[in-house]
Amino acid sequence: MLTPFFVLLAVAVAGVAVAVAVGRISGGMAEPTSTVPVRALPDGDVEPADVDQLRFEVALRGYRMQQVDAALDRLRTELARYQEEHARLQAELATGGEAEVEAEVEAEARDAG
User: Fold this and answer.
1) How far apart are CA 92 and CA 43, in angstroms?
2) What angle do CA 56, 60, 65 make, to 5 degrees?
3) Are 41 and 50 in contact (CB under 8 A)?
4) pLDDT tens for residues 10-44?
5) Distance CA 28, CA 113 (A)
6) What's residue 18's pLDDT?
7) Taking Cα atoms as reference points, which of 55, 51, 52 lies closest to residue 36?
8) CA 26, CA 30: separation in Å to the nearest integer?
9) Nearest partner of 22 among 34, 11, 14, judged by Cα
10) How far is CA 105 from the centre of its chain?
């Protein structure tokens, strides 16, 4: 006698859960909160240290943190390499090594092409 009651109760609970999940009934779960402060990239020039400081909010269906960390590590390394190369080229230009810089840029273009 109690079995049909429990079946009906289970169906009713499942129906209410589905209605809440699809938004037919309000009062669902609140947006998740995070205790980690969000740190975005600054406006303007980005330094490797800015990538180190970058933090994202954790979401229920967010990205895999290991993949994001690996991508940010690579981005930081590449950014640091470009900045070092840029500073070296600027120093060479300032010391009058324009011909050397132009020859190096042409050589790099040939190697890449």
Assistant:
1) 29
2) 45
3) yes
4) 888 888 788 777 766 766 566 666 666 677 888 88
5) 57
6) 81
7) 55
8) 11
9) 14
10) 32
